[in-house]
Amino acid sequence: MSPQSFTSDRRRFLNLVGGAALAAPILGASNPAFGSSASKAADHVAEFYGSLSEKQLTTICFPFEHKLRNRINANWHVTKPRIGEDFYTDAQRDLVKKILRSMSSEEGYKRLIQQMDDDYFGVEEYSMAVFGDPEAGEFQWMLTGRHLTLRVDGNSIKNSAFGGPIVYGHADEDPDTNLYHYQTKQTNKVFEALNPEQVKSALLKKAPRETDVLLQGANGKFQGLAVKDMASDQQTLVKESLQVLLAPYAEEDSKEVMDLIEQGGGLEKLHMAFYQQGDLKEDKVWDMWRVEGPSLVWNFRGAPHVHAYINIGMAKS
């Protein structure tokens, strides 16, 4: 189905039933597409979607299976209109900020806004799209721009955290002031706790491509040291590192990630790898690292600045 026929069908439906009859579904209170009424971000996406004009619908809305939905990149625009342009209303821009705030923890939202301000003059320079129909079934809202590919799916996409791979980053090349270097310092606590034999498995020369985040499933071959081969105190550090990595996101999303890790065999099925490549200060605080298992890939490249590609879900058989 083309974007034009998709949005025209929806508009005809809106005209037939009238705005009042759609009030409850747009708020997401009982719509099964949202997975849980606790998903405030999805509620705001539905409200945003319901506010779109015909021109907006045909420009930024696509069928759910459109190829753009599966793209990830550290610097791209999924659609042409920028959020700050007259193409959107002030009320719609407020809804975008509500979506971002609801999909983040309080600290994560502040860091996200700061990153967009630092890297690209603010959220107004980013772009967005909606795939599918938040009022009817599977859907995904996507925001893209410099160092970001973010998604909201309201748990309508099964066995996939965030609804698909996401990207975050920060252009500051000084580790001391980069907004996400704290994650490197945390994961390196695991490395510092390793014994010499474990280091032989965990420390590798060259990092994989940053976009190499395909989920391999239970039969995958993973780089680095297996968590099952770590001592209990080292495994505790791995768990603490995951908690730090997930802290910027809404509680419902963090819980979904941990559930998917369990479905993939649990913490012991994860591997951690650190790379000699890109050691910014030559201080052996490894700026490139990777956490991977059957249902998770967290590929972090901290040099020359942060590009992080994340994919969490159950691999398709």
Question: Would you give an account of this structure?
Answer:
- The protein is α+β, with helices and mostly antiparallel strands and 317 residues long.
- 36% of the residues lie in helices and 17% in strands.
- β3 and β4 form a beta hairpin.
- The protein starts with a helix and ends in a 5-residue tail after the last strand.
Question: Which structural traits does this protein have?
Answer:
about 325 residues, alpha+beta
Shape: globular
Structural class: alpha+beta
Q: What is the H-and-E element order? A: HHHHEHHEEEEHHEEHHEEEE
Distance between the termini: 27 Å
* Number of E-type strands: 11
Beta-strand content: 15-25%
Mean pLDDT: 89
Count helical runs: 10
Helix proportion: 25-40%
Gyration radius over CA: 20 Å
Give a short account of the largest sheet: 11 strands, mixed
Low-confidence stretches: 1-38
Give a quick rundown of the structure.
The protein has helices at 3-17, 23-27, 40-50, 54-60, 90-102, 106-120, 181-192, 196-202, 232-246, 251-263; strands spanning 61-62, 127-132, 139-145, 148-152, 166-170, 203-204, 225-226, 271-275, 288-293, 296-301, 306-312. The protein has 317 residues and is α+β, with helices and mostly antiparallel strands.
Task: Describe the protein's topology.
Layout: H1 3-17, H2 23-27, H3 40-50, H4 54-60, E1 61-62, H5 90-102, H6 106-120, E2 127-132, E3 139-145, E4 148-152, E5 166-170, H7 181-192, H8 196-202, E6 203-204, E7 225-226, H9 232-246, H10 251-263, E8 271-275, E9 288-293, E10 296-301, E11 306-312
Parallel strand pairs: 1-2, 6-8
Antiparallel strand pairs: 2-3, 3-4, 4-5, 5-11, 7-8, 8-9, 9-10, 10-11
